[in-house]
Design brief:
With about 240 residues, the chain is mainly α. The protein contains 13 helices and two strands. β1 and β2 form a beta hairpin. The model has no long low-confidence stretch (mean pLDDT about 85).
Length: about 240
């Protein structure tokens, strides 16, 4: 049998935590009939080490308590899910270390921080854009409703629609922002966004501004091969909203 002191020495856990686990029914030791002290057997120690492991991979105490009520198949599913989460966190950590090495070597820290946040597909782009709005806004609710069943294919189709508009603007890049051809494309762009989130022209203009102000969008627009594209979109969107 192990005393509380023994368990603390073996695992490094605190006395308070052991008492809390007991109160929550997560790990309930026996009590010595002579002195009424808590005592842990080898099985308790193994279970405690399991609990500490489950905490380390990200399970809450509530989830751990429920974990012990599940069959092996459901437990495995939970572990696989947290394995994927850990792999994702590991990639983020490796990316952070790479950035740190670059900053140590003299690179601009702001550039390195934002570099990994580039928006590379339309699904992520619109998630960024919707952050411009408050979560309790009507636009946000419409956006979530309209995209709740979207598949990757749906977002690819959306990207194709937008690509078509942007490429049309590039083809007429020498036109003035107020020209009919550019304004027609901006109207098409607004229609797409309005159908997606019911946004006003003011919010539409704010979204267009984000293409310039947020360098995470750079990688998306770079593929069109025209540096002045975003500037023309913003200028044309400003004119369009004031009509």
């Amino acid at each position: 049998m192990f005393s509380i002191k023994d368990i603390i020495k073996i695992t490094g856990i605190t006395k308070r935590t052991l008492h809390y686990y007991d109160e929550q029914g997560i790990l309930t030791p026996s009590k010595n009939s002579e002195n009424n002290y808590r005592e842990y057997n080898k099985k308790d120690l193994i279970k405690l080490q399991e609990i500490l492991f489950l905490k380390a991979i990200g399970l809450s105490l509530k989830e751990i308590k429920e974990y012990y009520l599940l069959d092996n198949e459901k437990r495995t599913k939970i572990l696989l899910k947290h394995k994927e989460n850990l792999k994702y966190e590991l990639l983020k950590l490796q990316n952070t270390i790479e950035k740190l090495d670059k900053v140590i070597d003299g690179k601009d820290i702001r550039r390195e921080i934002l570099e990994g946040e580039k928006v590379n597909n339309m699904e992520k782009q619109y998630e960024r854009e919707i952050e411009l709005l408050y979560s309790n806004s009507s636009e946000y609710r419409i956006y979530k409703h309209n995209t709740k069943d979207y598949t990757k294919e749906d977002f690819k189709n959306l990207e194709k629609e937008l690509d078509h508009v942007y490429r049309n603007i590039v083809e007429n890049i020498d036109e003035l922002a107020e020209s009919k051809v550019i304004q027609n494309e901006i109207a098409s762009l607004y229609d797409i966004m309005y159908n997606l989130m019911g946004c006003s022209k003011e919010i539409f203009y704010s979204i267009c501004l984000s293409y310039k102000e947020d360098c995470r969008f750079n990688s998306y627009f770079e593929k069109f091969g025209e540096e002045s594209l975003v500037d023309l979109i913003i200028e044309a969107a400003k004119i369009y909203k004031e009509k």
